[in-house]
UniProtKB/TrEMBL annotation:
UniProt xrefs under Pfam families: AlaDh_PNT_C (PF01262), AlaDh_PNT_N (PF05222)
Record-listed E.C. numbers: 7.1.1.1
CDD domains: Rubrum_tdh
Species the sequence originates in: Furfurilactobacillus rossiae DSM 15814
Protein name in UniProt: proton-translocating NAD(P)(+) transhydrogenase
Superkingdom of the organism of origin: Bacteria
Catalytic activity: NAD(+) + NADPH + H(+)(in) = NADH + NADP(+) + H(+)(out)
Length: 375
């Protein structure tokens, strides 16, 4: 049988790449599953639950050395990569477009590295494997809840004997998968919501959720349904035009990403300084690469002198760990099913999904998109 392992993630990551439900499905389909001790604890999946589902709970060394396929959420550390063996497959968010050292280390080890960031998202066969979508959806939902929790007033309009509270005004910048989920969640909580994106195609999706679509004079549709990187002049123009929208809202949720690039700065220091006291910024793009809001810091809340809060919220999916893990594991299962046949790893580089999802195999960079991005 093919041996699939799931490892315990680094501190601060609450998700797990394999759930008991997916274990039992894999075991029924004749896979053997190993789970590193404690891997699911932060997602409320104790070791017992995996054992009952038919997995073997083992130590890390065994989980790595016995595996044909290793499933992870985040990229492996350099130390973990050193333990891998040629021909093993590893699946996860390996950050190939932004961390070339990891890609090179995996290639040197002759590991078959499948990186979810490289999945061709418009191929319909790949949709069940789309981790970026499943995790963005969780993140957008959680971001709206976090904003509502931190905001010092109501989201909905409240009519009471003690007076009427106005609804909160929520602005979502970047209306891809996460942004749309944030809009839907904020609407359900009763806020007055507007959305903005550089892709004009986004208008219909925003309006269908009952939110107002805002535009600037900058348009930035790029390849494959993604936004392109704007020029410095366009960026400045966009920032200037967005400043007015930001000043009128109570909550600003930002989600803008351009694959493989530093996230665009949408909210300048000046916009932060001019925000109403009590404004909540939730920056879903906040990572070590930067963020959409000036001064945002990953996994930290910064309170400004003027009383705004900037929440560095790049880790939202990890903050809803059970739901996020359920979907992640389902996406992993779809990949495993796709790359195996009759107890063999197939990994057909000529397949349009696998040929892109594969960052490295046999020491080579396989994905065209990654090859184009490698220096
Ligand atoms: P993403 O996470 O890469 O980016 C989030 C949003 O930020 C996007 O909507 C993008 O347009 C926007 N953005 C980037 N730069 C910006 C800027 N300077 N100002 C304002 N907004 C900016 O995007 P995503 O959520 O992964 O989705 C990207 C696209 O892919 C969307 O069109 C989405 O509908 C599409 N998609 C398609 C499929 C599919 O066909 N199966 C699956 C998932 C997503």
């Amino acid at each position: 049988a093919i041996v699939v392992s799931a490892l315990k993630e680094a501190d601060g990551e609450n998700r797990v790449a394999m759930t008991p439900d997916i274990v039992s499905r894999l075991v029924k389909s004749n896979y053997e599953v190993l789970i590193e001790q404690g891997a699911g604890v932060n997602a409320f999946y104790p070791d017992d639950a995996y054992t009952q589902a038919g997995a073997k709970v083992v130590d890390r060394n065994e989980a790595i050395s016995q595996a044909s396929i290793i499933a992870m959420i985040d990229k492996p550390s350099a130390a973990t990569i050193q333990q891998l063996k040629a021909g093993q497959a590893i699946i996860g968010l390996l950050a190939p477009l932004t961390d070339q050292d990891t890609v090179k280390a995996l290639a040197e080890k002759k590991v078959s590295a499948l990186a979810f960031e490289l999945l061709p998202r418009t191929v319909s066969r790949a949709q069940t494997m789309d981790v970026l979508s499943s995790q963005s959806s969780v993140a957008g939902y959680k971001a709206a809840l976090l904003a509502a929790d931190r905001f010092s007033r109501y989201f909905p309009m409240m009519i009471t004997a003690a007076g009427t509270a106005k609804p909160a005004k929520v602005l979502v910048l970047g209306t891809g998968v996460a942004g749309l989920q944030a809009i839907g969640t904020a609407k359900r909580l009763g806020a007055v919501v507007s959305g903005y994106d550089v892709r004009p195609a986004s208008r219909g999706e925003v309006e269908s959720l009952g939110a107002t679509f805002l535009t600037t004079s900058v348009s930035g549709a790029g390849e494959g349904g993604y936004a392109r990187q704007l020029t410095p002049e366009e960026t400045q123009q966009q920032q200037d035009e967005l400043a007015g929208f930001i000043a009128e809202n109570n909550v600003i949720i930002t989600t803008a990403q351009v694959p493989g690039r530093k996230p665009p700065l949408l909210v300048t220091q000046k916009s932060v300084d001019e925000a109403k006291p009590g404004t909540i910024f939730v920056d879903l793009a906040a990572s070590e690469l930067g963020g959409n809001v000036a001064g945002s810091k990953p996994a930290t809340t910064v309170t400004t002198d003027a009383g705004a809060q900037i929440i560095g919220a790049g880790d939202m999916a990890s903050q809803l760990p059970s739901a996020a893990s359920d979907m992640f594991a389902k996406n992993v299962q779809a990949v495993i099913t796709y790359i195996t046949k009759d107890d063999q790893l197939t990994l057909d580089v000529d397949d349009d999904v696998i040929g892109e999802l594969l960052a490295t195999k046999d020491g080579e960079i396989i994905s065209n998109r990654l090859r184009g991005a490698m220096k």
